[in-house]
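Table S2 (text version). Query chain:
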Amino acid sequence: MSDQKQSVVIIDYGSGNIRSAAKAFEHVITEHNLDFNVVVSGKAEEVGRASHIVLPGQGAFGDCMQGLQATGGMIAALEKAVLEDKKPFLGICVGMQLLATRGLEFGEHQGLGWIEGEVIPIKPNDKALKIPHMGWNVTDYPQGTNHPVLKNQEKNRSHFYFVHSFMFKCKEKDNVFGQTHYGGDVTAIVGKANMIGVQFHPEKSQEAGLTLLKDFLLWNPSKNC
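Corresponding structure-token output:
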């Protein structure tokens, strides 16, 4: 029976709050009686077997990209699974930022380039606001909440937990699915085809975050992307 379960693979490449993300997915799977296994792995072959893929990330953009490149065969496996096989993909925090063309944290670093744009410093227009942007903040949805992963979020009132100093500036506004406000607009959610990325930490965002993770597991982009 267990062999028939789908698997959500959380990529372990030396970055990110992996155990917290795994526990959050395990909680959602148990609470909603979903037929999934959670696999934490740095092995490229596990990505090929996955039904859903999660890329976490914590730290500097360049360090995270270097760690991903150093994980044998991982980028090639991700490109096949996500870009060719169109498996549902979720990037979290820096894992979301790595989708960009480049990051400008401590120099210029090439990203995966799956969503055009660059990762730039947050520069609030209110000098009293501190960097990093840290804590709970409201997210709104410039394109609405019809996306399958966002459909159960309360429009303009979802609270999520953020910790970051840089933000994803998308080239195309159609790739911006969510925004928060911190002395100006800050990208909170990006998306394209079978990919979605969140700047906040859903695993730390209580009910709204757990709902997002549940809806990600239920997402079948080939039917409703």
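Notes on Table S2: The first helix runs from residue 18 to 31. The radius of gyration is 16 Å.
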